[in-house]
Amino acid sequence: MTAASRAPGSGNRRGSTPNNSSQHPPAETPQTNHQSTTESSYRTYTRKAKGHADKVYTYATKAAPLWVWGIVFAIVGGIVSMQVGWLGDLIGWLGLICLVISAWRFLTNSLVNTWAVIASFMSLVALIVLGMLFFQSAHIYASAGRAIAPESGLINLHNLGAEIFKGFPILGWLVGLSLRGLAGVVRGLELTAFGLLGVMIYVIIQSGEVMPVILKASPETLQRLIKTLQKFKKVEVSNNESATVRELASIHNNYYESLIDALGWWRCICYAVDFVVCLWFAPWIVGGWSNFDQMAGWENANWPNIIRGLISVVFFEVAVRLWIIARKGVYLFGKK
């Protein structure tokens, strides 16, 4: 076969220069090698920094929730700002960021749809209404304290130290506003030392009235109660034991059940005491019950006392039940 009859490209390639570009990649230049090393070091450093930050965050959240750290940073920022303004502002803003992140996580973890948002909003409204109802009905017990010890002077708390938080960034203004509002509530109740004692008794009475309802409001609380009752080991005694042993065993076996039953009895007692106090210290007739024979129609009715008495005995628990219904909506429509 002649050289001319050979196919193109099939001839002797001994003299041709081989094309090695597809077999061997170009050698890395020092600049490229340095760049890849820098990127690798940066990724390693970023990964380690993120790992340390995650550890710090884990330890911090185990010690206290994020919103607690937000409040702590806000207080520390206000104190530091008295000496070093910029540092105090920085710490205060850090506290605000913690609170914002905590609120955002609550919204994203619990309120995942429109109905959950509505239920949460209604829960907040119910809490505000509860505060207003408490303020109105607490007047009865504050006036009871003043009537028992009329010589006792009024408690003057000024603004509860709201001026201290003037230098706090943003959160200081909110804390100061809350303290001034609380001081306004104290002035509105016209509290004396005995009046304050009366309000504390009112808190105990209202707690006794609504505690059985609140215990049954949360699935977590119910599950905890059920698990506690199931884990409790009861004592088995035979009929051959003495009556004293059988009685002690019965008391032991009904230890927790008796507490729950006692809450029902305590609820009835609290309602009875509340009703008597409202009738005695907040009479429904202008001038007191001594003017009952002079009452002609509703002209002499003491409507503020009537409303406050109904709030204390009836409507406060109604508001608590409405709050529980709203919280059930949050549990139902939220992730939890």
From TrEMBL:
Keywords: Membrane, Transmembrane, Transmembrane helix. Residues 13-35 have a biased composition (Polar residues). Residues 1-44 are annotated as: Disordered. The chain crosses the membrane at residues 66-84, 90-107, 114-135, 181-205, 268-286, 306-326. It comes from the Bacteria. This is Uncharacterized protein. It comes from Adonisia turfae CCMR0082.
